[in-house]
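ok new one. same drill as before - structure tokens go in, u give me an amino acid for every spot. 312 of them this time. try not to just spam alanines like last time pls lmao
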């Protein structure tokens, strides 16, 4: 627990744009942190100002290069602990390794659990994350986890549209997420039943619900290669949907995903800025909405020990 009323926000290298938006909303300046590399590639971290006794927030999405960014946040947490920070919160807009949350085949690790242990062992007192792949990931941590959602910005964005909207969950695991947004928008819900045939591969099997004549909005947490969401869009169009859009929190966009999405039947791809997208990954159908206000509000509430009621 921090011993005074001061708090400081620092950012590692993965998402400095989001960090800048957050501190502007909080009327703060980013803390001074040196993060560079030795000639052999080892990461070197140094706080360039005192954090003794302060409430410290470290912002880092573990997006590509995932392992590099993970190592950065671990070392930065350790540096803050050894510099006698009062409390350390790892702010992870995108929590990588989250999809490896179980032993679905023999002789594999539960990588999400290992990463959770590493963050706690490094010295974090709590974690703030957005749209974890599954809610149960919170149980992998032995420290408090504040789990927040991009739903408010998606609600605000689509509330303004004149579409005849139907929310569609791309799989059974995302039903609760989709139902919550559907209830907020006051629109019906459909579900896609799919069978995954391998990593980054999925075959759409069936649509539960009548989508004919509706403007379908697929709601998902991650778009990686784009293959799953495109197959879902094709299935919805075959079932008579007037149009299909996708709302996604984390735009991983591996490989040729931007080209695949641009050439797909999707009318629009709405994502957040939990993962920064270089200009090379932008395309005409892409819309980016910011979650900076949600994070700024969450950081303020953590610092002041206030409830998250109304935020999540």
């Amino acid at each position: 627990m921090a011993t005074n009323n001061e708090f400081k926000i620092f950012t590692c290298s993965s998402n400095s744009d989001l960090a800048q938006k957050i501190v502007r909303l909080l009327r703060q300046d980013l803390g001074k942190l040196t993060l560079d590399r030795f000639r052999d590639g080892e990461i070197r971290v140094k706080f360039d100002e005192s954090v003794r006794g302060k409430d410290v927030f470290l912002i880092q999405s573990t997006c590509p290069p995932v392992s590099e960014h993970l190592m950065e946040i671990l070392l930065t947490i350790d540096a803050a602990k050894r510099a006698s920070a009062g409390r350390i919160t790892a702010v992870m807009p995108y929590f990588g390794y989250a999809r490896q949350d179980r032993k679905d085949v023999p002789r594999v690790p539960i990588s999400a659990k290992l990463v959770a242990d590493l963050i706690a062992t490094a010295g974090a007192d709590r974690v703030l994350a957005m749209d974890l792949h599954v809610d149960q990931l919170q149980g992998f941590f032995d420290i408090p986890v504040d789990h927040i959602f991009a739903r408010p910005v998606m609600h605000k964005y689509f509330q303004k549209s004149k579409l005849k909207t139907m929310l569609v969950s791309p799989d059974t695991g995302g039903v609760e997420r989709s139902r919550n947004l559907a209830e907020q928008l006051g629109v019906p819900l459909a579900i896609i039943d799919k069978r995954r045939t391998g990593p980054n591969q999925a075959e759409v099997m069936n649509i539960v619900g009548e989508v004919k004549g509706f403007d379908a909005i697929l709601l998902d947490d991650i778009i990686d290669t784009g293959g799953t969401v495109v197959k879902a869009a094709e299935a919805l169009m075959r079932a008579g949907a007037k149009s299909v859009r996708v709302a996604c929190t984390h735009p991983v966009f591996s490989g040729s995903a931007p080209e695949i999405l641009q050439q797909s039947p999707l009318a629009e791809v709405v994502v957040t800025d939990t993962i920064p997208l270089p200009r090379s990954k932008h395309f005409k159908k892409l819309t980016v909405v910011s979650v900076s206000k949600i994070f700024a509000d969450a950081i303020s509430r953590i610092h002041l020990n206030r409830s998250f009621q109304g935020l999540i």
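The chain has a mean pLDDT of 93. and btw The chain has two domains: 7-149+293-303, 151-290.
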